[in-house]
Amino acid sequence: MLGDVTSPAAAEYLSSVLPAYRAKNGVDLCTVNAENGGFILGPTPDTAKLLLGAGADVLTGGNHTLQSYSLLGAIDEMAAVLRPANYPAAAPGCGSVIVRTASGVRVLVMSLLGRVHMEPPLASPFETADAVLERHRGRYDLALVDFHAEATGEKLALGHYLDGRVTAVVGTHTHVPTADLTILPKGTGYVTDLGMCGPRGSILGIDPEDVLTRYLTAVNHKFHPAEGKMKAEGVLLETEGGRVIFAERVTL
After folding, report:
1. Cα–Cα distance between 134 and 177 in angstroms, integer?
2. Which end of the chain is more exposed for a tag (fewer CB within 10 A), N or C?
């Protein structure tokens, strides 16, 4: 499971290294958070197709996903591209999908958005997770949750709330990898933030000079994607019987 793709260039980088990583490590399924794939805005259909064609099985979403106008007209036709499940039912797209691995394992992938310091204000991620799990009961073998949220406490709370009921809860959105990768008491893999797929010397994928100008002047300043060498951060999980038995951080 890989963290936020910060720009089209980051998507191109990830697409160039992901196939070899999957083959070398025997990865059965890969999720990628693509909600910044169009740089701040959500992914374009072309960016989504690039990532899916390179080995991402599911693209999870976030607060910017439906800000990609080019994606709005296509997301209903792209089952593997998710927006948060706690959007209203009338919103375009879907918040969960079941995919099969090559060995036939049925994996439910769910995308959720936090409510603490986040926009837009959506339904409870806790109640939404319950509803999605109930709706798909009996149809999946593993369940993976990407929780796109700002507050660490909210992410931890959802992890403990779903412990033993899903295979993994991973946080995204802050673009900074956290050091708390763990297996919770009932067997659910958990990490507060996966990190990002983007330039190494950036500030959350953005050119540092743009960010510093905004902080030093308190005036809105246009952001541009940073350039330079790339990285892709996330976690590798090994499961057995629907539970995580091994977890490690990875950087591509």
Report:
1. 31
2. C
SS3 153: helix
| Alpha carbons 213 and 97: distance in angstroms, whole number | 41
- Where along the chain do its domains lie? 4-200+229-251
SS (H, E, C) 160-181: HHHECCECEEEEECCCCCCCCC
Per-residue model confidence as pLDDT tens digits over 170-215: 999 999 999 999 999 999 999 999 999 999 999 999 999 999 999 9
* Size (the chain), residues: 252
Q: What fold does the segment set 4-200+229-251 form as a domain? A: Purple Acid Phosphatase; chain A, domain 2 (3.60.21)
What are 65-124's pLDDT values in tens digits? 999 889 988 999 999 999 999 999 999 999 999 999 999 999 999 999 999 999 999 999
- Say if CB 211 and CB 19 are below 8 A apart: no
What residues act catalytically?
A: 64
What is the C-alpha R_g of the chain? Answer: 17
Structure tokens of 206? 């953005």
Choose among 152, 162, 149, 178: nearest CA to 243: 162
Residues 203-212: contacts with CB within 8 Å, 24+ apart? 204/6, 204/174, 204/175, 204/176, 205/4, 205/6, 205/7, 205/10, 205/36, 205/39, 205/175, 206/6
How many CB atoms are closer than 10 A to CB 208?
13
Is the pLDDT at 41 greater than 90? The verdict is no
d(CA 30, CA 173): 18
